[in-house]
Amino acid sequence: MHISVLGPTQVHRADGAPVPVGGARLRALLTVLALRPGRTVPVGLLVDEVWHGDEPPADAVAALQALVGRLRRALGAGAVVSAAGGYRLDAAADDVDAHRFERLVADGARFLDAGDAAKALHVLDEALGLWRDPVLADLPGRAAEAERWAARRGTAVRGRLAALAALGRAEEALPELAALCAATPLDEPLHALRIRALRAAGRPAAALAAYEAVRRDLAERLGTDPGPQLRALHAELLSPAPAPDPARVHGPPGAAAPGAGAVPGMPGAAAPAPTGPAPT
Fold first, then answer.
1. What's the half-sphere exposure (Cβ side, CA atoms, 13 Å) at 46?
2. Residues forming beta bridges with residue 212, ordered by sequence position
3. d(CA 218, CA 32)
4. How far apart are the first and last CA of the chain?
5. Residues of CATH 1.10.10.10 domain(s) within the chain?
6. DSSP character at residue 12
7. Are strands 40-42 and 262-263 parallel, antiparallel or unpaired?
8. Cα dihedral sign for 220, 222, 223, 225?
9. Three-class SS of residue 170?
10. Per-residue pLDDT tens for 197-251?
11. What is the pLDDT of residue 241?
């Protein structure tokens, strides 16, 4: 059984067949339980969450028991377990899209830190593929919680764009980075990511212009200068690594270039002498 709450609440069996879960209160109950899979949720908390913003019925405990009965009929008798003082959804964390999303985002961050951008991109694409707006659609009135989930999605998006840039695909990341920076003009780490992507795409003048734009915004809106990360990046842009000296790379005319004839992976080993005509 797979439960989706990153959007309207949905349930699918292992074979992909949908499981109808009708009624707003029933979907709210399932969402509250699914956000805490394998953990007992107290009756009082369930009542507060299911009737959030409304006056609960006079006999709220009995009404909750009735909803639990309906949920068991929809999902299977063993899906919701009675426990001391509450109820528990018999599901693993990975059976719920929200928890799978969090695990994948954490995996993506670890892969990025380890320098494996390809794996990071793969798992972050999988994580973002789970997302459906509006998040927690069957728990209305939870703006603060929805914002927290939106922030987690933002972390996944940034990680994915950083992975693209690390894989030499900075041009693919730049349109989305530009839109995100326009929407959050004071987000310095995001601007730093865009500036690095512009540099990686071979556009140093655009990178400098992007730095100047965020520097001006910070000065006008907050009366501050860019932070250490952006200032260090700016210094790197102003002092790019010098181009290699042709004489050091190629040597004097007629001399073999350093390392010429070495076999990759075996420093100093001589390659077989060329058999074809000398290049002209």
1. 29
2. none
3. 41
4. 68
5. 2-95
6. E
7. unpaired
8. negative
9. helix
10. 999 999 999 999 999 999 999 999 999 999 999 999 999 999 876 544 544 433 4
11. 63
Token pair of 160, please? 């994915």
What lies within 8 Å, CB to CB, of 78 at 6+ separation is 72, 90
The residue whose two tokens read 């509450």 is 86
Give the residue among 208, 225, 199, 107 at the shortest CA–CA distance from 159: 107
| Residues 41-86: tens digit of each pLDDT | 999 999 999 999 888 999 999 999 999 999 999 999 999 999 989 9
Number of residues in the chain = 280
| 0.85 exceeded by pTM | no
List where CATH 1.25.40.10 sits in the chain.
Answer: 168-239
**CA-derived radius of gyration, the chain:** 28
- 8 A C-beta contact, residue 95 and residue 101: no
Alpha carbon distances (Å) from 179 to 167, 176, 188, 212:
21, 5, 14, 17
Domain 168-239 fold is 1.25.40
How far is it between the farthest Cα atoms of the chain?
A: 96
2-95 has which fold?
Arc Repressor Mutant, subunit A (1.10.10)
Residues contacting residue 89 through CB under 8 Å, at least 6 positions apart: 30, 33, 34, 36, 37, 38, 79, 80, 81
8 A C-beta contact, residue 215 and residue 225: yes
Six token digits for residue 241: 């690594």
